Amino acid sequence: MTGREAIKKTVDFGTPGYIPHTIGVNPDFLHEKNPAKLERIKELQANSGQEMLIYIFPWHIKDEKRDGIVYRIDEWGTKWEDHGTGMFTTYHPIEEGHEFIDRVTFPDANDASRFNVAKAGFEAYPDRYHCGGVWFTLFERLWMLRGFENLLVDPYEDEDTFFELKEKVMDVNLAMIDKWLEMPTLDAIAFSDDWGSQRGLLISPDEWRRLYKNDYKRMFDKVRSAGKHVWMHLCGNIIDILPDLIEVGLNVLNPVQPQALDLQRLSKEFRGHVCFNGGIDVQGVMVTGSPADVSEAVHKTVDLLATPKGGFVIAPSHSIMPETPLDNIIALLEAVEKYK
Asked: Closest Cα to residue 10, out of 134, 188, 137?
């Protein structure tokens, strides 16, 4: 069975025969540089194979590096900086007011050139599960344009203008979905909006349903009606809206952070109703635990989230942190091998 077939069956609860994974390790990102351990990690990755191919940043960007800092302008006009610890926004084109809307360039999703890299990758790796992306989908894109605090109050200070801007972003998203669906080997589209803090939703569930739920339904309906899977990256504690997301078509929830989501509750209420991708704690056990702790965490998470028919794709609960000991990464990959 190919990795592509295994993930498809896992998402569809079709009894894949083993538990697939999506574990990526970038040695350049890690602080520890022990050659022998890095070689062991490389060997384990080669043995287990890469089962998924995902393209999540199709928006054209312009980067410039000065004095060790990377400065970025994305296609929408939002500015970013990376001082060595990851990108963060520094400029939101219409933060000063909606009257500055001409500062925003709404991308042309029909520009076929933006899909060339993904098309070549899908052709080169036919045995991998093929996933396109509409990243920073809606809430995140809106606050990247307006600024976070502005976006939170916009629906109450100027509801009409809020909905007008939201619809402009949705027009781009829906067109992007259509273009991804033109790819004959596409298996899924991944979306992302970090709706949760570590303790709960960023707005009330009722307001989320009023302001945003139908937009996700519109996007997910397009994907599901084409016979493809819907993946969504939702950091934080989003359990209050998880039933709504499943209702409107969510197939796979990522990244399932144990320090934000109660895995026992997820298991009790949602196992078998949605596929989980993630769950191995990068904030805690992967950084501060022992290799034995990591191995135990993998087995406990499998017991909680997987079913005999599938429903769990093993992965870290986010990117593996640079300070993660190499022994713990080895323990993670060795534990995953036992489910092959």
From this structure: 188
